[in-house]
Amino acid sequence: MNSIMHASEPLTTKEFFDLDVDEKLKVELIGGALAVSPSSAFWHNRAANRLFRILEDSMGSAFPVFTDIDVTLEETTVVRPDVFVINTADFAPNRTAMASDLVLAIEIMSPGSKVNDRRVKPALYRDAGIPSWRIECSGRRLALFEIPLRGDEVTHLGQVTLKVADIDVPLDLDAIARYALGE
Predict the structure, then answer these.
(1) Distance in angstroms (rounded) separating the CA atoms of residues 32 and 77
(2) What pLDDT digit, counting tens, does each position of 116-141 carry?
(3) For 174, which of 9, 37, 49, 144 is 20 to 30 Å away at the CA?
């Protein structure tokens, strides 16, 4: 379960980055409050790795792909998308990624992150102008929920081709599920 610690005053991103937090913990700053998530499950990590490789192969060198590192969305919000893509023009290796850098953010839902992944983060990404996807596991299958900047989310199963920064990205969700779930 996510645990959110409220301070008497909301923390700023500067205060957040000044904290001495164990790098193994997944700590985010959401609206000035610290949110700590438990470690992800094996399938979650394997799905993120596969999505990383698919996106990296599809997007080419103009759009670097990253996993699980800080992204500053606003003065009191720093999130760690499971996988995200930025435009090379915005890449600076010695600074934290900013909302304006991202062309896609992906969250892979685990039991301890349901509320944040289904409700909180999609709203944060939309407000920041970042298209996003959410991956959920149901039994032995994966569903991808595409969350556009405007309109309702769209559910995808099986094979699908989605656009990221006007580039077609073919996904076989069943193949990713087999890989992630160890079949």
Answers:
(1) 6
(2) 889 999 999 999 999 999 999 999 99
(3) 37
Closest by CA to 27, choosing from 13, 43, 9, is 13
Of 89, 108, 95, 96, nearest to 51 by C-alpha is 108
Which whole-number Å values give the CA distances from 95 to 31, 90, 105, 150, in the listed order? 21, 11, 18, 29
**Which ranges of the chain would DSSP assign to H, the alpha helix?**
13-18, 42-59, 114-115, 121-127, 173-181
The SS3 call for residue 155 is: strand
Structure-block tokens of residue 78: 């720093």
Q: Specify the DSSP class assigned to residue 129.
A: T
* Nearest Cα to Cα of residue 26 among 8, 13, 39: 39
Please calculate the CA angle 8-9-15 and round it to the nearest 5 degrees. Answer: 120
* Dihedral pair phi/psi, residue 2, rounded to 5°: -70, 140
Q: The tokens of 16 are what?
A: 């957040």
- Extract the tokens encoding 178: 């087999």
Helices (H), 60-139: 114-115, 121-127
Residue whose C-alpha is closest to residue 173's, from 45, 63, 54? 54
Q: Which domains can be identified in the chain, with CATH numbers?
A: 41-181 (3.90.1570.10)
Q: Is the pTM of this model over 0.85?
A: yes
**Residue whose tokens read 């596969």:** 50
